[in-house]
Amino acid sequence: MPKVKIPSPLRQYTGGNPEVDVGGATAGEALGNLASEHPDLRQHLYTGDGKLRSFVNVYKGDEDIRYLEGQDTEVADGDEISIIPSIAGGRCK
Fold it and tell me: Which of 15, 25, 78, 87 has the greatest number of CB atoms lying within 10 Å of its CB?
């Protein structure tokens, strides 16, 4: 099973777990299964029409899945999927 690494701000929706093992042959299936197992997480990953939010970056190992096959990127047992939410802020002059 792939392992999804959960960032600190989202761990409250996974019972505090920093990593969750999920089934799925693709990154999209794995994220969908994660959201099914932890329904409160869904709104933080997906838009109302079911698309992955633009500020949610997903990596398979060290590779951004947007530069691979997107949510169709194949994953296998032992692969690590990392969810990295974009952080905005700062001050403009």
Answer: 25
Return phi, psi of residue 17, to 5°.
Answer: -75, 130
Side chain identity at residue 64, one-letter code: D
Other beta carbons less than 10 A from residue 82's beta carbon: 18
pTM for this entry: 0.88
pLDDT tens digits for 30-65? 999 999 999 999 999 999 998 999 999 999 999 999
In-domain check, residue 90: no
Q: Which two tokens stand for residue 91?
A: 């001050």
CB atoms within 10 A of CB 60: 21
Give the list of residues 6+ apart from residue 19 with CB closer than 8 angstroms, or none. Answer: 3, 4, 5, 6
Alpha helices, H only, 17-61: 27-37, 39-45
